[in-house]
Write a structure and sequence with these properties.
Largest sheet: 8 strands, mixed
Shape: globular
Structural class: alpha/beta
Strand order of the largest sheet: 1-2-4-3-5-6-7-8
Helix content: 25-40%
Distance between the termini: 38 Å
Order of helices and strands: EEEHEHHEHEEHEH
Number of helices: 6
Strand content: 15-25%
Radius of gyration: 16 Å
Number of strands: 8
């Protein structure tokens, strides 16, 4: 995906060391009262400033999250081939540690779009503790391959989860996700966006716009954050 230019008046840019690599990260505060920080990983074809990541970032900032976006090492190097899962997880952990040292937030949530969210969920399943996990368009299986489920680690997650998927997502068949969720043991909130695909795009015939979908996602995230903070 192409990068979108971002007004830079409120953005703080970082360079984060992860293993032998250095990646770019950007922090933007919430648009209103900031209640937490969300470390948001991009999808396989995305980057720190792709359209989907920025749309998600804006929705989360409206929900009360300051948002940290970052590149995975492969994307920092201009490659289209994602790093192996251990490198992805290592990078998320490094960005979280950097965020804690720079901002010292009371509440930190990890997650992200598609592959980035999956990597954050696998890191959480390994026992990496943050205050919550926010998954946007979780890729339960490859498109057209519903038999290849990516759910084996989900029962190991111990932190609260908000997972938001569209009912037309080709990478997350609703009935398969609902079956997978019968095995989870944590506080998992599943939010289905009616008619949305893997990019949270809705058809004109739905009577809704993509912008309205992002408002729904923002409101669901804000409600979930309120519940986490009340625990």
């Amino acid at each position: 995906e192409s990068e979108v230019s971002v007004p830079s008046d409120k953005i703080i840019s970082w360079k984060v060391q992860t293993g032998s690599d250095t990646v770019s990260a950007e922090y933007e505060p919430a648009t209103s009262e900031q209640r937490a920080v969300f470390v948001c990983a991009h999808g396989a074809g995305g980057n720190i400033r792709d359209r989907g990541t920025l749309a998600a970032s804006r929705a989360m900032r409206d929900a009360g999250f300051g948002v940290v976006r970052f590149n995975f090492p492969y994307k920092e190097k201009g490659s289209g081939r994602p790093d192996p899962m251990p490198r992805l997880k290592e990078c998320i952990a490094a960005v979280v540690q950097h965020t804690l040292s720079e901002l010292a937030p009371d509440t930190v949530v990890t997650g992200g779009r598609s592959m980035g969210g999956r990597a954050a969920s696998m890191l959480a399943a390994d026992g990496f503790v943050t205050d919550g996990l926010l998954l946007l368009a979780y890729p339960l299986h490859p498109a057209g391959q519903p038999e290849k489920l990516r759910d084996a680690h989900l029962p190991e997650i111990r932190i609260p989860v908000l997972c938001i998927n569209g009912t037309r997502d080709a990478l997350c068949e609703k009935s398969l996700m609902e079956k997978a969720l019968t095995t989870v043991r944590t506080d998992w909130t599943m939010h289905w966006v009616e008619g949305a695909d893997h990019s949270f795009h809705v058809l004109k015939s739905s009577g809704r716009t993509d912008a309205q979908v992002m408002v729904e996602i923002s409101q669901a995230s804000s409600s979930w954050l309120s519940r986490i903070l009340a625990r």
